[in-house]
């Protein structure tokens, strides 16, 4: 298993993103990006609370599955609700990540942290963000795309203490191959790069380290928001 990651505040005053990586056992691995919600107070605190809660719960699970992943999300949601009550402050975060167990990947997300899977440098899977824009498009709303663009950062699901809006979407990918590469990133990254653009850069990169450096080059120059990304590869050689 190989993982590389990078997180930066962009042009914001602080970085409210957090990268979570844990090896729970020889055959169980977690990697996630947690994006503290900038419109609320204490986004960085929320990200840390969620990371600790999820990591603690998954460490007690013998065999992860969709039910256990949602239970971990529920635990973190409760922790956020309790902290909000104690501080009388609003807070929350979005999350996206993978749990690799044996040769299977559980991709999970709540909000707009994106997960991409590439195999032999070809894009196979891209998560769909829980956003107002995506919800309107899926409902067939006849809205001008230019008018919609100002709502692109409005999320419809997040971990902020409300169980009704914190349901994770989970994609199970079985039979992983050694050529599989996962890229998990906050919206500060996928604001600048879509899946096909990342695929094109990956195709012309000799290593995942080169891919990361090429993505960083543009992000450091152009990103206005916090941005965080992780690349997980060489999965079978763990």
Explain how this protein is built.
This protein has 238 residues and is an alpha+beta fold. 32% of the residues lie in helices and 29% in strands.
Shape: globular
| Unreliable spans | none
Tell me the total number of β-strands. Answer: 10
SSE pattern, N- to C-terminal:
EEEHHEEEEHHEEHHHE
Q: Per DSSP, what share of the residues sits in E-state strands of 2 or more residues?
A: 25-35%
CATH fold category name: Phosphatase 2c, domain 1
* Number of self-contained structural domains: 1
Spatial strand sequence of the major β-sheet? 1-10-9-6-7
Number of helices: 7
Helix content: 25-40%
Keywords:
single chain; 238 residues; alpha+beta; Phosphatase 2c, domain 1; 5-stranded antiparallel sheet; 7 helices
What is the secondary structure topology, with strand pairs?
Elements: E1 2-8, E2 17-25, E3 28-36, H1 43-58, H2 66-87, E4 93-101, E5 104-110, E6 114-119, E7 122-126, H3 132-138, H4 145-148, E8 169-173, E9 180-185, H5 187-190, H6 195-203, H7 208-222, E10 227-233
Helix pairs in contact: 1-2
């Amino acid at each position: 298993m190989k993982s590389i990651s990078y997180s930066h505040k962009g042009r914001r005053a602080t970085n409210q993103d957090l990268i979570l990586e844990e090896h729970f056992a020889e055959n169980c691995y977690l990697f996630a990006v947690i994006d503290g919600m900038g419109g609320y107070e204490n986004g960085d605190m929320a990200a840390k609370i969620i990371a600790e809660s999820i990591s603690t719960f998954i460490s007690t699970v013998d065999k992860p599955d969709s039910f256990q992943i949602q239970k971990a999300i529920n635990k973190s949601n409760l922790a956020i609700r309790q902290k909000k009550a104690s501080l009388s402050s609003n807070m929350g975060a979005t999350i996206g990540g993978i749990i690799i167990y044996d040769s299977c990947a559980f991709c999970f997300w709540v909000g707009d942290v994106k997960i991409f899977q590439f195999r032999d440098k070809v894009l196979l899977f891209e998560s769909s963000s829980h956003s107002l824009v995506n919800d309107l498009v899926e409902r067939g709303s006849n809205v001008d795309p230019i008018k919609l663009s100002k709502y692109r950062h409005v999320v419809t699901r997040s971990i902020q203490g409300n169980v009704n809006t914190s349901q994770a979407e989970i994609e199970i990918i079985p039979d992983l191959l050694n050529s599989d590469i996962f890229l998990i990133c906050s919206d500060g990254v996928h604001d600048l790069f879509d899946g096909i653009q990342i695929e094109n850069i990956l195709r012309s990169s000799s290593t995942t380290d080169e891919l990361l450096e090429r993505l960083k080059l543009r992000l450091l120059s152009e990103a206005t928001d916090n941005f965080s990304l992780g690349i997980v590869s060489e999965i079978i050689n763990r």
